[in-house]
Design goal:
single chain, alpha/beta, Rossmann fold, five-stranded parallel sheet, 54% helix, binds 2'-deoxycytidine-5'-monophosphate
Length: 211
């Protein structure tokens, strides 16, 4: 049985943690597609380029290899913000598409999380979930994560960052963040990580049983 599971949603909705746990549960490989865009932005900046330089960003996207994704510098709000700028460029998205699709088409299937997995990368996915949470809940989660690492951040800055990124990711014309029409919806505002996982597994089992 091939099982492709697409998990989409905005920053700090909990989609990454859910995708990782779902992948572990089913014994499937997991791809955090946000890391691809983060790595493109990192490579553009490392070469002294501008994030909105189409030719440079496309060249970086074409040379991304999976080995460079395991980089702690890719975590964090600045890398996320920079990623969301290169992610607006259609040529960058096109350059990353084959890699994502090949990953999804592995024997047995895969779990991918991002913004356009259910709509563009894997419209054929057997299960699609769109994960949301209120702006305030997402900013609070990020704030606690950064505080836990002893980083100097403010809640207001994180909230502004989340809102700016949502607007950019859903307002762009190339593959905007969007729930697929056949996506299951999960709002994690009131849920902790375990409750969210239980809720998403219930939805997934219902969808698999009904398909
Ligand atoms: O999921 P993330 O926060 O790591 O993603 C960083 C940025 O990358 C996000 O703001 C928009 C972009 N992105 C995208 O456009 N499409 C994806 N499938 C994944 C991420």
């Amino acid at each position: 049985m091939t099982l492709i599971i697409a998990i989409d949603g905005p920053a700090a909705s909990g989609k990454g943690t859910l995708a990782r746990r779902i992948a572990m549960h089913f014994g499937l490989p997991w791809l955090d597609t946000g890391l691809l865009y983060r790595a493109v932005a990192r490579d553009v900046l490392a070469g002294g380029g501008n994030l909105d330089d189409v030719a440079v960003a496309e060249a970086m996207a074409r040379s991304i290899v999976a080995g460079t994704l395991d980089d702690p510098a890719l975590r964090g709000p600045q890398a996320g913000d920079a990623a969301s700028i290169v992610a607006k460029i259609p040529e960058v998205r096109a350059a990353l598409l084959d890699y994502q699709r090949a990953f999804a088409l592995q024997d047995g299937g895969a779990v991918l999380d991002g913004r356009d997995i259910g709509t563009v990368v894997c419209p054929q996915a057997r299960v699609k979930v769109f994960v949301t949470a209120s702006d305030a809940a997402r900013a609070r989660r990020r704030f606690l994560e950064h505080m836990g690492r002893g980083e100097d951040v403010t809640y207001d800055n994180l909230l502004a960052d989340i809102r700016r990124r949502d607007a950019r990711d859903s307002g762009r014309s190339a593959a905007p963040m969007l729930a697929a029409s056949d996506a299951l919806h999960l709002d994690t505002t009131e849920l902790d990580a375990d409750q969210a996982f239980e809720a998403v597994m219930r939805l997934i089992h219902e969808r698999i049983a009904g398909s």
